[in-house]
């Protein structure tokens, strides 16, 4: 897989793709359905994705709290796992948002990328003020000799599978629902940073990962897993939140304690998967009470992970 960060400088070997269009935040089962439809329409052509970075919502609503399910590098890796060969990330800013729907199709998709075939959801909108829709795209693509597949959304008993539903499941404290929608556990990815090392003093050293641009799930304690670069599976318990017992401030972070592991994780990029929610975050009277609760949480997490498929080495 190759990531392209400037659509005006696409090499010859990346042109002529069948291109799936969308934001693809989370790369959930609905996205996989769209990408499969794109490939099925033209299995003879290389498979590519056109997406946007940053997410348009962060440009138009910068005051919103972080909401991303997957940072761009993680999204690209997940797309590669679905067979995508070329990931074209369109730089989304005020200037790009002013591009007309006509120019998006003609200049970007046709002349810039040499698209052979397109696939998108039936509600895909593009161009200045989102004036381009599926009907407009169908008309212009046909005139330019580009094929088009309009893909109905993949749905379950609760409706269409969407990034919004994944976000809501996480914020409501139901990571297992997010897992069902994504087709895999949702993970927080980041570089392990140094904390205050209080956990180590009470027998529970933690790997600390800032949330960054990730959406903040329900604050509390989770059963988690992570896999190291060498394939080692780590199982553990994590607190996600602001640590009210130590008055840590207003910035949330993930602190994961991995069972039976004493290696040095500082500075390593780690993806920590949230598998089950154990309890909400709360403030304890003292460290003794906190220590007792962590012991109880760890026992619950071990039990949950023993029942979780794929959570054992």
How would you describe this structure to a colleague?
This protein has 10 helices and 14 strands. The chain has 313 residues and is an alpha/beta fold. It has 2 domains: 158 residues, Rossmann fold (3-Layer(aba) Sandwich); 122 residues, Riboflavin kinase-like (Elongation Factor Tu (Ef-tu), domain 3, Beta Barrel), CATH 2.40.30.30. The strands form 3 sheets. It has a 6-stranded parallel sheet with strand order 1-4-3-2-5-6, sandwiched between helices. Strands 9-14-11-12-13-10 form a 6-stranded antiparallel sheet. It has a two-stranded antiparallel sheet with strand order 7-8. α5 packs across α6 and α7 runs antiparallel to α8. The longest helix is centred in the last third of the chain and has 21 residues. The two termini are 28 Å apart. The mean pLDDT is 92.
In short:
With 313 residues, this protein is an alpha/beta fold. It has helices spanning 29-41, 56-60, 72-81, 94-97, 101-112, 134-144, 163-171, 175-182, 198-201, 287-307; strands at 2-4, 18-21, 47-53, 86-91, 117-121, 147-151, 155-156, 159-160, 186-191, 207-210, 220-227, 233-241, 253-258, 269-280. The chain has two domains: 2-159, HUPs (Rossmann fold, 3-Layer(aba) Sandwich), CATH 3.40.50.620; 186-307, Beta Barrel (Elongation Factor Tu (Ef-tu), domain 3).
